[in-house]
């Protein structure tokens, strides 16, 4: 070693520059046998570790060990510690740990023995036991490890298929990706669950199918069942009677064809959108027929009375109920707010637009004071006004809540049915129960009225919902 000419630190004699400060040194000195390297080794120390050539004088160190005929390799640890002597003829490799600590004697055919860091030998009783044991591995501290399993051959890698885009909004999953087990529902993030909750897929598929089956049977019963018992009359007889085709034959034809189609579409495995189309046509068709040609008997004014109020009330009940149903399920949709505004607004106009020099709503409120009495018909009209007003307000609430719009939709659906039911109950109370029982057609029409309102509302809501899902 020599001193640096600049920082006076020890550096190798053969160094041209200082390894600490980088200063250039003078001419390098020739390394003598007593000079050491930067790692602390002298030439004499290294010479002792070199193997001696046959016939050459021994320079020190350990004498060469006799090797067997088939002995291949001997490895020593750091520090050059010797390996045990007297290895068998078939011993191939012997490895010692850090520090070069010798290993215990080896069996006849043992190939490799590995020790942990520090070269610690195996504890008693944990060394090789069988003559043909090939390898024994130890962990940190010389603790025996579990036998290693053979490596499986590597499988050839297949090129990854690129993602295929089916539409601008739908990404198809490439083949080869892990799929969810059969019967297990896929996992969704919180944001995805909220999106699915505000825009479900076919929320009325089951309820619409059940309605079409039940109401289809009801329409066919109206067509084929007796309308009166004394005398016995049937609706379908007007189709086979004499005379040409007139308005009296429209309702029997509508009940027969409409009921059959409604029942078939409810039973057959058809798409939900097709059921929605049939339900909307049957429900709205019956309402239009009632507003134009009158009731089942034909003739007379429309079912909702004359004037614009009757048509506004008819359109409001259909669009208002359908819009509130859409708002209850598709809460983030703008259509769920527009339809209730139109439908409920038309109903409110019937109560708020002056007619005959007065506002109808004010006239109903004045009856609460006893002027002329307040019958069930007036109360039922107020119920309609309150349901339309609250449904309109609740449809404008934030999309985080439905606001009970589904309940208000059903009030609009049941409103005409409730009015007819109240009239039948009043007739029974007045002592006309026997006359009502002799006319089953009255009960048929009661069920059919509910069927037309429900089919029209749910049919339109299903069609609007499918357009929102697409």
Number of strands: 8
Helix content class: 40-55%
Question: Could you tell me the strand content as a percent range?
Answer: under 5%
Distance N to C terminus: 85 Å
- Shape descriptor reads elongated
Q: What is the typical, i.e. mean, pLDDT?
A: 74
Unreliable residue stretches: 76-80, 86-94, 96-101, 106-119, 130-142, 165-174, 188-192, 298-303
Q: How big is the Rg?
A: 49 Å
Largest sheet: 2 strands, antiparallel
Order of adjacent strands in the largest pleated sheet: 1-2
Helices and strands, in order, run as EEHEEEEHHEEHHHHHHHHHH
Number of helices: 13
Structural class: mainly alpha
Brief account:
This protein is mainly alpha-helical and 470 residues long.
Structure overview:
It is a single chain. With 470 residues, this protein is mainly alpha-helical. It has a domain of 266 residues. Helix content is 44%, strand content 5%. The chain has 13 helices and eight strands. The strands form four sheets. A two-stranded antiparallel sheet has the order 1-2. β1 and β2 form a beta hairpin. The two termini are 85 Å apart.
Give me the secondary-structure topology.
Elements lengths: L1 E2 L6 E2 L31 H7 L62 E2 L21 E2 L27 E4 L2 E3 L17 H9 L6 H20 L1 E4 L2 E3 L2 H4 L9 H18 L4 H21 L15 H22 L5 H18 L7 H7 L9 H20 L9 H25 L3 H5 L2 H30 L1
Parallel strand pairs: 3-4
Antiparallel strand pairs: 1-2, 5-6, 7-8
């Amino acid at each position: 070693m020599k001193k640096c000419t600049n920082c006076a630190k020890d550096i190798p004699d053969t160094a041209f520059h200082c390894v600490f400060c980088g200063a250039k040194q003078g001419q390098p000195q020739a390394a003598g046998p007593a000079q050491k390297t930067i790692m602390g080794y002298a030439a004499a120390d290294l010479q002792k570790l070199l193997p001696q050539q046959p016939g050459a004088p021994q320079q020190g160190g350990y004498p060469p060990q006799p090797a067997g005929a088939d002995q291949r390799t001997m490895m020593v640890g750091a520090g050059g510690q010797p390996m045990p002597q007297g290895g068998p003829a078939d011993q191939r490799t012997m490895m010692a740990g850090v520090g070069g600590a010798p290993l215990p004697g080896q069996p006849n055919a043992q190939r490799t023995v590995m020790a942990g860091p520090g070269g610690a030998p195996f504890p008693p009783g944990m060394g090789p036991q069988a003559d043909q044991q090939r390898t024994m591995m130890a962990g940190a501290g010389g603790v025996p490890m579990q036998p290693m399993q053979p490596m499986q051959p590597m499988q050839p890698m297949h090129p990854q298929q690129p993602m295929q885009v089916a539409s601008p909004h739908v990404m198809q999953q490439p083949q080869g990706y892990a799929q969810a087990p059969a019967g297990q529902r896929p996992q969704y993030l919180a944001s995805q669950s909220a999106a699915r909750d505000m825009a479900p897929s076919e929320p009325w598929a089951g309820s619409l199918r059940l309605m079409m089956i039940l109401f289809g049977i009801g329409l066919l019963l109206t067509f084929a069942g007796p309308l009166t018992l004394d005398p016995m009359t049937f609706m379908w007889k007007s189709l086979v009677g004499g005379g040409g085709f007139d308005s009296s034959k429209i309702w029997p034809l509508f009940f027969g064809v409409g009921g059959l189609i409604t029942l078939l579409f409810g039973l057959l495995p058809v798409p939900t959108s097709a059921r929605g189309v049939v339900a909307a046509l049957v429900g709205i068709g019956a309402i239009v027929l009632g507003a134009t040609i009158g009731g089942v008997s034909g003739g007379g004014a429309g079912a909702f009375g004359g004037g614009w109020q009757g048509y506004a009330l008819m359109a409001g009940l259909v669009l208002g109920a359908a819009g509130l149903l859409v708002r209850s399920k598709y809460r983030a949709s703008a259509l769920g707010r527009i339809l209730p505004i139109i439908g409920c607004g038309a109903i409110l106009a019937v109560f708020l637009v002056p007619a005959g020099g007065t506002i109808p709503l004010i006239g109903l409120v004045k009856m609460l004071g006893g002027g002329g009495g307040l019958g069930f018909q007036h109360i039922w009209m107020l119920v309609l006004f309150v349901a339309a007003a609250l449904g309109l307000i609740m449809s404008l609430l934030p999309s985080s809540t439905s606001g009970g719009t589904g309940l208000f939709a059903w009030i609009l659906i049941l409103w005409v049915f409730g009015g007819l039911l109240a009239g039948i109950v009043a007739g029974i109370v007045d002592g006309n129960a026997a006359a009502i029982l002799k006319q089953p057609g009255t009960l048929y029409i009661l069920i059919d009225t509910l069927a037309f309102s429900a089919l029209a509302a749910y049919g339109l809501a299903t069609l609007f919902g499918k357009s929102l899902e697409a």
